[in-house]
Each structure stands twice: as C-alpha cells, then as structure tokens.
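Predict the 3D structure for this chain.
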Amino acid sequence: MVLGLKYRNRRQVARHLAGLIVNSIVANGDHVGLDLVTWAPTSVARRRSRGFDQGELLAGLVARQLGVPSRSVLHRTAESHTQTGRSRRERLGGVGFDARPGLAGRRVLVIDDVVTTGATLGAARAALERAGAEQVRLYAAAATPSGLTPAVKVADRGLAAMTRDVAA
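Done. Predicted structure below.
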C-alpha cells in the first residue's frame, strides 16, 4: 500500500493508512492534548517528481480525523539527502531538519510513511525539540523490520509488538 502511494500515485490508499495511524494513536492515548500534526517532509526533488508529499497527505488526513490542526513546521536542511537507496550508515547521517519558530510548549505529532532506520523521524524530533516543543510523538504507517524503535509507533502491525531498538 505504501509503495503504491509513494511510487504509483495511488493517493486513495492514504485515507486507509491514515485511519490505521489514527487507530494506533487513539489506542495509545497519544491524541490527548495534541496541539498540532506535522510531517517529515520529502525532498523537493521527490515532491516535484511525485506531484505531492505523501507525508503531508497522511498528516492532513490524520489531523482531520483527530480534529487537530495540521501545519508544515519542518523543512529539510541544505545537507539533507533523499533516503531511498541509501545504506543504514548513510541514512543515519544523511537527513536533517530545521523547525519553524513558535513551537515552545507545544505538543506535536509527526507523521511519516515508512520507518527504515528511524533517522528521518529522529531528525524531526531533534529539530522540534530545539524549537521548544514540549512533547513530540512519532508515528508512521509502516516500517521495515529493522526500522522499529521504541520512540516510533507503527500503524500496520500492532503497536505493542512493533517497538524494538534499531541498534539491537
């Protein structure tokens, strides 16, 4: 489903994936007290080639279902690289974000499509915390088997079983 969304322009599956994410968020009680939903943005080149940002699409649908505003607050730094096709080592050092100001004391939910190493969501969390976010919750629609971390909740496989350390 995620591959269809990302690479075959099957945007209609986003609604189903967003529903799975929302179910996980609610089941964990992570919807309580949220101030805003954002996403880990794809690169400008990827957005241009696809015609949309799948993270933005998912985040908007999740936010709508939760009744929370969705805003673009993260942008990739100049050194940030596309993660597709990169090794684990390259991924861990290849993504960076900056966050817009005005997040002090905010509780932010970050949505991504796939977790592979956790580097993208880790960089998103770090940027939001640098900007003063009080709490950052991380969710993704899917994960590769090695991409599961205690900090990231994944909607597609039953949350309790999905949290193991990437370093393990």
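Helices lie at 2-7, 13-27, 44-50, 54-66, 88-93, 119-130.
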